[in-house]
Amino acid sequence: MRQLSLSIAAAALVLAAAGDAMAATGTDTGSFEVKATVVAKCRFKSATDLSFGSYDPTDATDNTSGQNDIVVKCTKGTPYTIALDQGANADAGSTAAAPTRRMKSGSEYLSYSLYSDSGRSTVWGDNANNPGMTSTTNADTTYNAYGTLPAGQDVTAGLSFTDTVGVTVTF
To answer: Using an 8 Å Cβ cutoff, are 75 and 135 in contact?
Structure first.
């Protein structure tokens, strides 16, 4: 009986110790914040070449067939401007606000203009007066440059003329 009493007492001590251990465990909670700041950013993605095709200097009508795509991507809500520089062959009297752009072949030049609207009324220059845009999406946005090649320019048949225009996105 004594053995039984000792076994019961030992079992009682084990159960008491286990109960104290269970009572000693618990939980506590907390939290932390996750943060990020969205930056205003724009990227020039690409531009297609602008081609006027064939030019007939004896035609009395301006060639307005030139048009290209300029693709930019900006963070939603970012204000920005797109500037087109004067090109590699600008006339000496060319200005940022009203560039006199020219394509070149050897020592000959073929003048042209770039516009930001299909009606060809707003010259697309490289100055701070370019119309500002604000991105409404984070997706690629495409703009068009519309070209005019004035009629009646005195150039030699068979030549191919080229120019390179730089694009700057400011945000």
So the answer is: yes
Polymer length in residues for the chain: 171
**The sheet that has 101-105: what strands, in order across it?**
42-47, 67-74, 140-148, 108-115, 101-105
Neighbours of 87 (CB within 10 A): 22
Cβ count within 10 A of residue 92: 5
Give dist(CA 88, CA 171) in Å, integer.
24
Place of tokens 């707003």: 122
| Domain range annotation of the chain | 42-170
- Give the pLDDT confidence of 141-167 residue by residue, as tens digits: 999 999 999 999 999 999 999 999 999
* Sequence-separated (6 or more) residues with CB below 8 Å from residue 68: 47, 48, 49, 50, 144, 145, 147
pTM of this structure: 0.79
Bridge partners, residue 148, by sequence:
113
Does domain 42-170 match CATH 3.50.50.60?
Answer: no
Q: Tell me the pLDDT tens digit for each residue of 111-146.
A: 999 999 999 998 998 876 676 788 899 999 999 999
